[in-house]
Amino acid sequence: MSRYRLHLEAYADLDKIRGYIAQDNPDAADRLITEIFDAVRALVDSPHIGHQRPDLTSKPLRFINVREYLIAYAPNLKPLWVVAVIHARRSPRMIAAILREQE
Fold first, then answer.
1. CA-CA distance, 12 to 74, in Å (whole number)?
2. Confidence band, pLDDT 50/70/90 cuts, at residue 103
3. Do 90 and 99 touch, CB atoms closer than 8 A?
4. Contact, 59 vs 16, CB < 8 A?
5. Mean pLDDT of 60-71
C-alpha cells in the first residue's frame, strides 16, 4: 500500500512541469521530478515539517518548497495526500484559486 497519494491535478501539475523543463533539458526535468518525489516520501515520516499558509487556504494543508515549486499536502491524512505542485512565483491569489478547485 502506498504511503502517499497524489490528487489527479497534482499528477497533471508534475506532467506540465516536466514537459516544460524537458523542452530545454530532459535530464534536469527528470532530476527535479525525482527531487519532488523524494520530498514527498520524506513527508510521510514527518508530515508536519511543512509550513501553514493561511494566506492561501483555510484548509488544514501544509506546504514545502522544492527548488522554486510549492508542494501543498494534507499532513493528517493516511496515506499522505498531495494536493498540488505549484510554481512558487505564481501570485498568491492564483495559488489560492488553484487550491480551492482541488478538493
1. 18
2. low
3. no
4. no
5. 95
